Amino acid sequence: MSKTRFARYNIGQVIRHRLYAMRGVIFDVDTSFAGTDGEPPADGTSAGLVYRLFADDDEIPYVASIAEHDLEPDDSGEPVRHPGIGTMFEVGEAGNYRWRRHALN
């Protein structure tokens, strides 16, 4: 029997890596990731969740897949600079990211 897992973060949310200088905007959550790198969090509720995000690290933009326990919210208000963001998200007046109603081609 599989356990129900709840994502801690939302699509369009800006997050940062808790150890490295990397920030990003979440565009997908993989709930089926088996995970082999490290131990799950002590609470056990979010083991195995991996977030895919448009990321930047002050050098180059890239797409990253990062385990939930390695992330934390980013409340800096600074925009994330990645060319893929504009194809999936609109930027709101408050700097938040929300899904585009229609994909850009």
UniProtKB/TrEMBL annotation:
Cross-referenced Pfam families: YccV-like
Domain Hemimethylated DNA-binding, first and last residues per copy: 6-100
Molecular function GO terms recorded: DNA binding
Gene3D superfamilies given in the database record: Hemimethylated DNA-binding domain
Protein's UniProt name: Heat shock protein HspQ
Organism of this sequence: Bradyrhizobium nitroreducens
Native organism taxonomy: Bacteria, Pseudomonadati, Pseudomonadota, Alphaproteobacteria, Hyphomicrobiales
